[in-house]
Protein: GNAT family N-acetyltransferase
Amino acid sequence: MVILREMDEIEYESFLDRTVRDYAEDKIKAGTWKEEEALSLSEKAVAQLLPEGRATKDAFLYTVVDRADGREIPVGVLWVQFSEGKFGREAFIYDILIYEAYQGQGYGKRTLEALDEEARKRGAVSIGLHVFGHNQRAYHLYQKMGYETTDIQMSKKL
Structure:
């Protein structure tokens, strides 16, 4: 059974380091940022979204836990923010990661199902996310889980 447990401070520090690095790498792969500026821009972007760290209003930072056989095994992380949108309260996934050792075992699907339940409890009417074009594995999972493409931005290198 997958549950979403609020991160503790140690988990948050580890999450923060990894998410800043991973976001910078994704922006480089996408051709959005130059390598020499990516880490700095990533740190700035994350700091703007989480100005109070774990205590940032409407930000929920979870450790994804598999609760099996009386044990709790951390299998990933999830960062979601809630806001008021045009049609009601909305959730937005800023980061989701299933640790490499647990990928391909259904944890992504079960994490998104757990988020559906959590978002409903918090009054959300929708969940949004952004997926990088090079992350086809995630894109296909989101489609399978009922997420629909709302717009597409494309570019061509010359």
